[in-house]
Design goal:
By secondary structure, the protein is of the alpha/beta class. The protein has one domain: Glutaredoxin. Strands 1-3-2-4-5 form a 5-stranded mixed β-sheet, with helices on both faces. The N and C termini lie far apart (55 Å). Belongs to the bacilliredoxin family. It comes from Cohnella xylanilytica.
Amino acid sequence: MSMSFERYMLDMVQPMRDELTRLGIQELRTPEEVEQALPEAKGTALVVVNSVCGCAAGQARPGVAAALEHDVVPDHLFTVFAGQDKEATAKAREYFAPYPPSSPSIALMKDGELVHFIERHQIENRSAQEIAADLTAAFDRHCR
């Protein structure tokens, strides 16, 4: 019995996608979906660049989940999946200049402009609680 690589990866990453979509975060899987969502997101928007790496599993996704329990949260919640939805991720990253591509990463935008960004190197050596604290401070600053 042979399984295609694409099918294998779909099955493998689905739980990683579900961790974020269960929180009410909308997946943007194509460049067109990114173009429809990000420029039109009035108010604040959180964009999580998801990844299969350990720091996404141990720190980024749990940190985002904890931050979204805060009393102040962004108006819109989006995610793209690096390495899986490559074109959508590339399109989303166009909004994160001047930051280089980074997976995982977390962007906070306000009226289509980047106002806060957490790069991979700021995720991999910190706890989920530290990431959540960073995000909630940004939510308090930009989402009120």
